[in-house]
């Protein structure tokens, strides 16, 4: 998973749905800890800004 910081509005919606607490929000960005992430896709589905993509996805 990858966060496009230019699209992300740092709303925190993704944090609330992550079952393994792999997403951290700071004042300026959202970071997904890939060593913890299970790639369940919950964050992809709820991101209102569509700022989260699968790593390597061209879209």
Regarding quaternary structure, what we see is single chain
Shape: globular
* Share of residues in helices: 10-25%
What is the fold named in CATH at topology level? Alpha-Beta Plaits
Number of helices: 2
Distance between the termini: 13 Å
Query: Order of strands across the widest beta sheet?
Result: 1-4
> Element order, helices and strands?
EHEEHE
Number-wise, the strands total 4
Average of the residue pLDDT scores: 91
The biggest sheet, with number of strands, parallel, antiparallel or mixed sense and barrel status, is:
2 strands, antiparallel
In total, the number of domains comes to 1
Overall radius of gyration: 10 Å
Question: Can you put this structure into words, describing what you see?
Answer:
By secondary structure, the chain is an alpha+beta fold. It has one domain: 2-Layer Sandwich (Alpha-Beta Plaits). The chain is built from two helices and four strands, in the order E-H-E-E-H-E. The chain has helices spanning 13-17, 42-46; strands at 2-3, 23-25, 30-32, 52-53. It has a two-stranded antiparallel sheet. A hairpin with a 4-residue loop joins strand 2 and strand 3. It is globular and about 25 Å long. The two termini are 13 Å apart.
Features:
59 residues, alpha+beta, Alpha-Beta Plaits, two-stranded antiparallel ribbon, 2 helices
What does this entry show, briefly?
This protein has 59 residues and is α+β, with helices and mostly antiparallel strands.
């Amino acid at each position: 998973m990858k966060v496009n910081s230019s699209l992300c509005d740092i709303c925190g919606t993704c944090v609330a749905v992550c079952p393994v607490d792999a997403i951290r929000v700071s004042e300026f960005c959202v970071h997904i800890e890939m060593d913890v992430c299970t790639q369940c896709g919950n964050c992809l589905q709820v991101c209102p800004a569509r700022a989260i993509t699968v790593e390597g996805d061209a879209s």
